[in-house]
Amino acid sequence: MSISSPFPGRGLSGAALAPDWLDAPGDLDAIDPRWWPDTARRDDDGCLCIGGVRVTELAARFGTPLYVIDWATITAQATAIRDAFTRALADVGSAVTVYYAGKALLTSEIVRCMRDLGLSLDVASGGELAVAVAAGMPPARIGMHGNDKSYAELRAAVAIGVGTIVIDSLDEIDLLVAAIGDRAAETGERPARQRVRLRVTTGVHASTHEYLATATEDQKFGVALADVDEAVARIRSHPELEFVGLHSHIGSQIFDHAGFDAAIDRLMAVHARLSRIAPVPELNLGGGFGIAYTEADSPRPIEEIAHGVAARLARAARAQGVPVPRIAIEPGRSIVGRAGVTLYETGTVKDVRLGDGVERVRRYVSVDGGMSDNPRPELYGAEYQVSLASRGSTAAPALVRVVGRHCESGDIVVQADWLPDDVHRGDLLAVADTGAYCFSLSSNYNMTPRPAMVAVADGKARLLVHGETIETLLARDAGIAGRIQREGDA
Fold first, then answer.
1. pLDDT band, residue 490 (cuts 50/70/90)
2. Alpha-carbon torsion angle 100, 101, 107, 111, nearest 10
3. How deeply is 441 buried, as exposed, middle or buried, from its count of CB atoms within 10 A (0-12, 13-18, 19+)?
4. Which among 47, 49, 407, 438 is annotated as catalytic?
5. Active site annotation includes 407
6. Cross-strand pairs, 329
7. In Å, what is the CA distance from 416 to each residue of 11, 20, 363, 388, 413?
8. How far apart are CA 366 and CA 468, in angstroms?
9. Would 465 disulfide with which of 252, 403, 422, 453, CB 3.0-4.6 Å?
10. One-letter-per-residue 3-state SS of the chain
11. pLDDT for the residue 263
């Protein structure tokens, strides 16, 4: 049997039931800090505890599937990234603005956490902007980007007073100017100049899945470096706009500073050219700092990445004969990814004889969620690790594939990992590293209600997002909701 993977060397192939990096575990109950939250522990019965709360208690109270967020990990990660880049940039005579990338995971409580830690917020839609403002993030600390921002979204951003808007195309310049003018005509007030950045494609991209690489020339984001001068001249021709710098994002799951080095060299050459015409105070390098999902991932410490970025920036500035600009970065996954764990209840467990000429059996362990709460394995070939969470076990390790309940053969939660041989219906399983993009990308496929999300800290759990119900789904169907309403009025 052959299972393709977009990550060369990481997928399953030939007669293999597991990738070459997945070794048989010495201890199935071990909690590896590389991909589990900071507070993850086992109690005396082998039950997984996060934030001082047993996962069995969480499942009984909130149901499964369930997104669990360890608050201590989020705050520690945000603080570490903020401090690492602050120190590194200060060493080269500059400073940094850290925008939390809201697309990774956005709730009102997370917005307030980032605000209180001194981070700004990056949003990519009118909905994300509305959550940010409702949660109390100061508009001046919000950056808004996106490749196809609507007139309504730009109008809302201008009305709210968003700190910086990232322009993604030439025609968006005119659209933004129109939104500013219409807002001024409506209020009768002279608008403040809108700070803007210009997103550019540097041609440098991270070594990752093609859908996660965002700085190649042939993709939807930004303008090519060759078109930057025209775009900036057009921006500067409008007195309503204040051009403050370039914006770049080279991709996701970046494990070191090598990709940033190449991007910085190209960006600083353009930055210096633009600075000789008028001041350009900032440079936004984006985010994409990676985390370890499996043994195959080896991200460098964030302090090392920050130091490398700052050193390369200083070298490029010297080479171009310009001051080191203020830097902006946009971490998302690296703040919330490892903080998240998804709990599932085990359903069907069955051994499938593969029948491909080799006497092999794959054990399928089904759970009560899947691609509706985490489509990343299907979208990107993302890989995860799983653990029996509700109890300890002395059974021998068994190689399994954890699959979802949806009507898709590709509905795979974990391609390959080890669980105790006695895993059975009703057990709780925990999948690590699900804090980023799982909730954000969730759906109602097969009319499945989306899970609740809870935060755990100091032995207590609090609800962040209500789980959906069948009634929630029915209420959205106009034909059903209308009939229920008519029957109620009768």
1. low
2. 20
3. middle
4. 407
5. yes
6. 98
7. 10, 11, 10, 14, 9
8. 21
9. 453
10. CCCCCCCCCCCCCCCCCCCCCCCCCCCCCCCCCCCCCCCCEECCCCCEEECCEEHHHHHHHHCCCEEEEEHHHHHHHHHHHHHHHHHHHHHCCCCEEEEEECCCCCCHHHHHHHHHCCCEEEECCHHHHHHHHHCCCCHHHEEECCCCCCHHHHHHHHHHCCCEEEECCHHHHHHHHHHHHHHHHHHCCCCCCEEEEEEEECCCCCCCCCCCCCCCCCCCCCEEHHHHHHHHHHHHCCCCEEEEEEECCCCCCECCCHHHHHHHHHHHHHHHHHHCCCCCCEEECCCCECCCCCCCCCCCCHHHHHHHHHHHHHHHHHHHCCCCCEEEECCCHHHHCCCEEEEEEEEEEEEEECCCCCCCEEEEEEECCCCCCCCHHHHHCCCCCEEECCCCCCCCEEEEEEECCCCCCCCEEEEEEEEECCCCCCCEEEEECCCCCCCCCCCCHHHCCCCEEEEEECCEEEEEECCCCHHHHHHHCHHHHHHHHHHHHC
11. 92
HEC letters along 371-436: CCCCCHHHHHCCCCCEEECCCCCCCCEEEEEEECCCCCCCCEEEEEEEEECCCCCCCEEEEECCCC
CA distance 75 to 12: 36
- Total-model pTM: 0.91
Using pLDDT thresholds of 50, 70 and 90, give the confidence band for residue 375.
very high
Share of the chain above pLDDT 90, in %: 82
Please enumerate in sequence order all residues whose Cβ is within 8 A of that of 170, keeping only pairs 6 or more positions apart, or say none: 223, 227, 230, 231, 234
> Quick one: tokens of 345?
């209840």
Can you tell me the distance from the alpha carbon of 372 to that of 404, in angstroms, rounded to the nearest whole number?
A: 9
State the number of CA atoms in the 13 A half-sphere of 99 facing the CB: 32
pLDDT, the chain, mean: 91
Task: Give the tens place of pLDDT for each residue, 256-311.
Answer: 999 899 899 999 999 999 999 999 999 999 999 999 999 999 999 999 999 999 99
Position 280, amino acid: V
In this prediction, residue 14 carries a pLDDT of: 38
